[in-house]
Amino acid sequence: LRYLTSGESHGKSLVAILEGIPSNLNIDIENINKELSRRQQGYGRGERMKIEKDKINILSGIRGNITIGSPIAIEIKNKDYENWEKYMKTTGEIDIQSKKVTKARPGHADLVGALKYDFEDIRNVLERASARETAARVAVGAICKEFLSKFNIDFTSHVVQIGKQKIQKSFFFDYIKEKSELSQVRCVDENFEKLFIEEIKKGKEEGDSLGGVFEIIIKNVPLGLGSYAHYDKKLDSTLSAHLMSIQGIKGVEFGIGFEIASLRGSVVQDEIYYSDEEGIYRKTNNLGGIEGGVSTGEEIIIRCVMKPIPTLYKPLNSIDINTLKNYKASIERSDNCAVPAASVVAENVCAFVIAKFFLDKFSGDNMNDIITNYKNYIERL
Ligand code: EPS
């Protein structure tokens, strides 16, 4: 399973090609559009989200809602393109000057991108480095979710920290799944929800931005995805790499994560039990459902930290990349906190990785063969 995305933030469309989805999978397009809409939500999002109503346009690889085993090509149109066509169209004369950006924003790809690709105009960088690209990745992940749902694998996520406000409690999957969708900041605790909104509001009033931490929980992943034997087939390292590739993500931890450092082995490891009713099971899940790079069958629990958005309305010191003179960084229309949106992106990015590992283990060109392989394995377990 693999995919590629293309598209600029204010270009005509975001596109992706997903290859490796088996044939005879029923795709409900409304489920994919729902994921795209979830990604657009969240207190702290900017004005752009009022313009866009992201919807998937499936160009190939599916006939009458059923996959045919061919690469699936998708498109998400940028509505804002109407306002940007004369600056962004791919061919013909364009107006570069009016939208030229030369004062790099610290923390964005602006400086490194312009120097590396030899640009005098940072717009060539920021258009592609923009987190708008995650809309294409959510659409890809949502197709993977459709596949995984046939095996009862389910995803949820919630925000556990914004700025200095941090939730310490843990919650059950079903509770998070229900409550997070009702909250503007994907927060399942009503008191913290208010505190999160307050933090974001205060930040915005002060021309500043905020980051935070979100948690993803994946349930019903069978024991045995990934490998202890091959460094490049470990489930946790692959999930980390894909999560770290989401714009703004600076760290990933599994289970109780960095807290492990202060605890003894006797406390950290998840003891193993057996009963006739439950089979093999654990009473704790400190390692977050992965041991030796392989899924244990427990819930996979991952936390990611997202840095504050680099575009600041009270800009930081920077330089003009062409004159090298000192200036304040430029201001682009932007979000001031996108942690809730990033948690939705992360769910879908994980869905791609889980689907990939699932297909590696239970491989087949069509749904029937994969279901047979899966059932045989589960029976042996
Ligand atoms: C967007 C993510 C952010 C938005 C963007 C849409 O991108 P960036 O990483 O560049 O800050 O602010 O919207 C705009 C670029 C705009 O014109 O407002 C997204 O997730 O769709």
Automatic annotation (TrEMBL):
Record's cofactor remark: Reduced FMN (FMNH(2)).
EC number of this enzyme: 4.2.3.5
GO biological process terms, semicolon-separated: amino acid biosynthetic process; aromatic amino acid family biosynthetic process; chorismate biosynthetic process
PROSITE patterns according to UniProt: CHORISMATE_SYNTHASE_1 (PS00787), CHORISMATE_SYNTHASE_2 (PS00788)
Keywords: Amino-acid biosynthesis, Aromatic amino acid biosynthesis, FAD, Flavoprotein, FMN, Lyase, NADP
Cofactors, names only: FMNH2
Subunit-structure text: Homotetramer.
Function text: This reaction introduces a second double bond into the aromatic ring system.
Family: Belongs to the chorismate synthase family.
UniProt protein name: Chorismate synthase
